[in-house]
Amino acid sequence: MECVVFVYIPNVYNVKVCHIVLAGCNKLSRICVCAKLSKHGLRDKVVIQLMDETQEKRKPKSWTSWLPVPRFKSNVIRRTITGFTLFFYFYFVVYCGVPLILLHALAIEIICHNEIINIALKAKKIPNIPFFRTLNWYFVIVANYFFFGEAFSEYLDIFVKKYYAINVLISYHKFLAFCFYFLGIICFLVKIRKKLIRQEFSVLAWTHFLLIIIGLQCYMIVQNVFEGIIWLILPVGLVILNDIFAYIFGKLCGRTPLISLSPNKTLEGFVFGGISTLLFGTLLSYIFCHAPYLTCPVRFFGKSKRHSNEHISNIISIKVYPFLYHSLAFSLFASVIAPFGGFCASGFKRAFKVKDFGDLIPGHGGLTDRFDCQFLMATFVNVYIWTFIRTAEVDKIYQKVFQLSIDNQLKFYHLLNESLCVRGLMKN
Amino acid sequence: MSEELRRRSSGAAESETGETNKLGTAESNSSRENLQSNLRDSEIDSEDDKFGRKGSIDLSGSIPSGTDKAPSVLDQMLQDLPDKWRNWVVRGIFSFLMLIFFLVVIYGGPLALMITTLVVQVKCFQEIINIGYSVYRIHGLPWFRSLSWYFLITSNYFFYGESLVEYFGVVINRTDFLRVLVTYHRFISFCLYCGGFVLFVLSLVKKYYMKQFSLFAWTHVALLIVVTQSYLIIKNIFEGLIWFIVPVSMIICNDIMAYVFGFFFGKTPLIKLSPKKTWEGFIGGGVSTVVFGFIMSYVMCQYSYFVCPIEYSETLGRMTMECEPGPLFRPTNYKLPEFMCGFLTTFGLPDSVSLYPFMLHSLSLSIFSSVIGPFGGFFASGFKRAFKIKDFGDVIPGHGGIMDRFDCQFLMATFVNVYISSFIKWDSPQKLLTQVLYLKPEQQLQLFHMLKENLENRNILTPEV
């Protein structure tokens, strides 16, 4: 049985100096190691930790090992069971309403962030410095406060203005978030350690990168949900459908490999999966269009505590559903571009030499494994809504006029009058 | 002692590959070698790393430093001075030249400022990315250089498009061709970004995965730092030139004054990262920045060239910078607090003071700049220390690269933008008018009639007979 000896120098904060492979873990080998180190003058300064190789390779027990789920030999059945469980869980979440959906979006974002940053730091062999991990979470909290503040101030201003404390927090969210962020940077600079300075900058850079990649998409998902729950459900459903169909067709008739990054993906799976996504996606959106719970944008009315939805009539009309054209565009994106998010994640796992992002979901791996394509799709949906669907609303501008002073309101009235006359829309 | 330890430990690490064969019994030699090679494989990402790079990264060879350089003309003129004085003279001359250039650009107006910001931004991005290339030793992959530049161009298109849409939207809505670019601008830039992303995934090469991902992350962080903040600078300029000039000069003044105070009175060190900075310099610099900011804003508030936001006026049919100064820039009387009133009236002095409200805002801006300025500088010097480089580049002799001069400015611009959007009411009648012009004509008429009815009901507007 072979042993791996890890040698640490305590002053330099547990940075692993080297590892030496021994033939056996007996006392003789240990003496040899000590002799070798004392030759270099390191004997007294060094802590030798003898670790069993099997101990190193043994993974911590996953939480799912306590579940009374029968262990099938086939991975496919396991994946299907877990898949169905997830599906019902998310169905329940959607049924419960928007606040729970937003909470889940936030939770998913934090879990994915955690998984990726754990992998990155472990692979880069950056020592686990507790203060800097705390700082990472501090920045995540500040960034999410900023994003949610933006979303709430735009959509939920009636609710926000009711309570003074929340009003202050949300109205000045940009300024407060900036102050907290800068405080975090100051703490980072004060506590920096000269010997580990490069690693500490690495942690900071990874935090920022992951906030751009994941935190920003979470904000976009929140914006999508406020436009109507269907703008979240349909893209998610399309990506899942594409995944499943590509897998099925790949298993049935897959031959030519698609990309060297993921040897399991085939061209036939890609093409046929794409076509079936287009068909079934259109069917799915047709079903969804009938439910006003899903199609209406989320607005808050002051009288009742729960949010109510009101009907948008320019997107959905009774006979023809213009939404189906949009869903075609979404299906196209989901089948062609969104898989690249999956390839990117595979490349990432290969680069960092891990098999899965984590072990939260049995059979599937970590949460990021499931949601990697969704992020790109959510960004596309957000940009699409902003460009093609959203129109400026008369009410919003009307309300803004009344926030001006009385002189300015009059001034605005005259300016508008002049502008309309100049352009011939009105006679004076 | 610790240095010796480190040297020995790195020596021990590198000699382990030779030493392990001596330990252990002969039978397990082959399996041990297998394990050894497995361990070795897991640590190298490409052929480059085969011989290990376990210590810290030292880039002082690959990044050129500008602090000790001087153009040949000056070199000849200053040959006889001792080295230290020569450095100071070069630095002083180029500081002066930069100041003159700054004044010329301000005189040139908003367009010159926007172009300068763009040029500065591109150069800063180039310097940061150069460091990234040197760190990851990715010179062998030509694809990657182009990909970083592609992302820079895409993000610039997105951000400049956003500001153009907001401010020139009115002009652009008139011509049909440009309207297409404006309406679909977000969508087009997203498609371009997706294209870049797909190219990145397709360009992943087997042995270089880790490096390519790291450089991808590096590019994104550099874009976040450089491009977003220059977009915010442009937004500040559109609020009025004063919102650009005053913060920039505050940071410069803080730099110079902190140095002067540190030189004369410096004793207690401020932070471990930069041993040359002192508490006396920090506080002295802060106080003088506040005073300087006060004086400068008093002077600038009086000229409408600096004070007016850049807007579109229907009557003139173009963008103008002439306007009536807003309430922030008109002298208002402020009553002094109670305890001072009694004191002042006994001496026959007036008990209220007439100030521009902007001067009070400049007070908070200067307090922040005296904190942001030094810490932005510490951040940049920490970054340079991590990679053991002396300067970001060598564009400006005596000072180093452009990033050396502009590191604090970016953060200050972000702060000014956040400050404006939080505390200073954006909306003015002109701004709302630009938003109204996006509505469809029927909606505009609807708005007009609703407004008219409401104003008449409140007796603000007398109904026409």
From TrEMBL, chain A:
InterPro entries per UniProt: PC_trans, PC_Trfase_euk
Task: Please indicate if the UniProt record lists Isomerase as a keyword.
Answer: no
Q: Which GO terms describe its biological process?
A: phospholipid biosynthetic process
- Transmembrane stretches, by residue range? 88-111, 131-148, 168-189, 201-222, 228-249, 270-293, 323-345
Which key words tag this protein in UniProt?
Lipid biosynthesis, Lipid metabolism, Membrane, Nucleotidyltransferase, Phospholipid biosynthesis, Phospholipid metabolism, Transferase, Transmembrane, Transmembrane helix
Membrane topology category: Multi-pass membrane protein
Query: Which pathway, metabolic or otherwise, does it act in?
Result: Phospholipid metabolism; CDP-diacylglycerol biosynthesis; CDP-diacylglycerol from sn-glycerol 3-phosphate: step 3/3; Lipid metabolism
Q: Which GO terms describe its cellular component?
A: endoplasmic reticulum membrane
Provide the catalytic activity annotation.
a 1,2-diacyl-sn-glycero-3-phosphate + CTP + H(+) = a CDP-1,2-diacyl-sn-glycerol + diphosphate
- Highest taxon above the source species: Eukaryota
The entry's localization annotation reads:
Membrane
Which GO terms of the molecular function aspect are on file? Answer: phosphatidate cytidylyltransferase activity
EC id: 2.7.7.41
The keyword Transmembrane helix is assigned to this record: yes
Similarity annotation:
Belongs to the CDS family.
Per its record, how is this protein called by name? Phosphatidate cytidylyltransferase
Which source organism does the UniProt entry give?
A: Exocentrus adspersus
UniProtKB/TrEMBL annotation, chain B:
As one GO molecular function, the record gives:
phosphatidate cytidylyltransferase activity
Which protein are we looking at? Phosphatidate cytidylyltransferase
Question: What membrane topology term does the record carry?
Answer: Multi-pass membrane protein
Membrane-spanning ranges:
88-107, 148-172, 184-203, 215-234, 240-266, 278-299, 358-380
Q: Which Pfam families match?
A: CTP_transf_1 (PF01148)
Stretch list, region Disordered: 1-64
| One BP annotation, GO | CDP-diacylglycerol biosynthetic process
Where is the sequence biased in composition, kind Polar residues? Answer: 18-39
Q: Does the keyword Mitochondrion apply?
A: no
PANTHER family per the record? PHOSPHATIDATE CYTIDYLYLTRANSFERASE (PTHR13773), PHOSPHATIDATE CYTIDYLYLTRANSFERASE, PHOTORECEPTOR-SPECIFIC (PTHR13773:SF8)
Q: Which family does the record assign?
A: Belongs to the CDS family.
GO cellular component, alphabetical, reads: endoplasmic reticulum membrane
